[in-house]
Amino acid sequence: MTTKPMILAVDDEPTALAAIERDVEHEYGADFQIVCATSGSEALAMLKQLKLRNEAVALLLIDQRMPHMTGVELLEQAVELYPDAKSVLLTVPADGDVPIFTIRPAKPDYYLRKPWDSPEENLYPILKDLLADWQVTYRSPSEGLRVIGHRWASNTYRVRDLLARNQVRYEWLDLDTSEEARRLLAALGSERLALPVLLFPDGTWLADPTPIEAAEHFGLRTQAQLPFYDLIIVGAGPAGLGAAVYGASEGLRTLLIEREAPGGQAGMSSKIENYLGFPAGLSGAELTRRALLQAARFGTELLLPHEVNGISVEGSARLVHLVDGATLRCHTVLLATGVSYRTLDVPGSERLNGAGRYARSVTLLVHGPSLDESMSQYLIDQITASPAINVLTSTRVVEVKGKTNLEAITITNTETFETQVLPTTALFVFIGAMPQTGWLAGLVERDEHGYILSGLDMLHDGHRPAGWTLDRDPFPLETSVPGVFVAGDTRLHSMKRVASAVGEGAMSVGLVHAYLRGL
Ligand SMILES: Cc1cc2nc3c(=O)[nH]c(=O)nc-3n(C[C@H](O)[C@H](O)[C@H](O)COP(=O)(O)OP(=O)(O)OC[C@H]3O[C@@H](n4cnc5c(N)ncnc54)[C@H](O)[C@@H]3O)c2cc1C
Questions:
Q1: Rounded distance, CA 204 to CA 49, Å?
Q2: Whose CA is closest to atom 48 on ligand 1?
């Protein structure tokens, strides 16, 4: 967006247009940008582009007598795009004294006879008043990305989640409530575009983009820059970020690949209270922001949003394969893929996933007989103290109901077998998490739940893992493939804490150095 609001002058007569432009520029050029069009259709095309670029238009100066589209006809369409812009219709004596617009829905704020002999007397006082009126109600538009969609639609939610978790600022326009959203879609030429629509400050836009398409537009790096890396880290949670900071700071050519957004599980935490050095706690988003800055400052390259779906060995090189078909090469790999939320496997749940709302009161459904088994005491105390939270123990969700968004759930008490339907607009499913390491099957050793084995965990009766060719034992954090390491929640027997994940990430870099020395 430019910094100055616009004044648009429209006249099919080039000499008259030049005179209007000269006079307006002379008085208002310092505060406004003057743009000109020689026909109604050219003016409309211009206004649509300005709208898409989120430019402010303060005033329309429109000649009434134009071929193909009269000034009044243009004004009717222009106010659809810029309802708050002030307008002046320029007439000539032949148009007569009777207003020609009384029967029209769109009326100009002023009628002005041209030519005006003295702009100081006949033009500037009028424009001054109109522009002052406009200024009072004018709100500076957002300078960044705008997202248009339906609040409860799951693909809109996914895009907004991607933007928020990648700390991309945007203006949200809900099609259900925002006139501006409707106007913008009309300016794009279709109100039937697949939603959400992302509108960028340069006027370009994307309808229902894939995460990579969206990321490319908001400036994230989606292509690796080097042909070969010392260390490729898969997953940008605390473990991956920890490894990135230490790897890059110690001179390793380090690439960090993340499929969604940096921060992992920790990035979603509203407050982490037990991380060393932050006695008042800090949000996962803030921790992530700081870690990313630190990693970038040391030269880590971040590739996002890309999912890794394979790793293979080619001599001393390790090959990392991405879902989009690209292959990246390196000496060592760190698997820092954490764990992912388990989803609720009941009828209706998949269809309504992501169509959520904020809540005034919360009912906590707990499968076990109490919270004690699975929750820290300080959290139990906070829940008990909150009047907005109601806890139902020994409870299981058996069905999720709703057409376009959630309307109710059916629950069963596992002790009494009593069933009831609870009306609700949102269901937050938090039923544990599992590693998603199926794509590593046949490459590294994993336990029956998918957790990755490392170091001494792989020595069975003192024997090294099958296929192990080196004449040393695996390093701690090293998997059954030499040069492929694992850190954080995805590692068998890990602590499942932010600090331990960061610590393991940092530790893995020391082991990478030891491995590289042996090459
Ligand atoms: C809501 C919540 C609150 C928490 N609060 C606390 C707390 O207060 N204190 C505390 O100590 N711990 C807390 N934890 C636990 C802590 O967040 C985790 O232990 C920690 O995040 C684990 O870090 P990680 O890097 O191993 O894995 P994760 O944080 O799970 O990160 C793994 C990353 O890898 C990415 N990834 C996975 N597979 C692929 C792939 N194939 N390709 C590319 N990328 C991939 C994921 O998208 C993810 O970003 C909390 C967890 C949650 C969910």
A1: 9
A2: 264
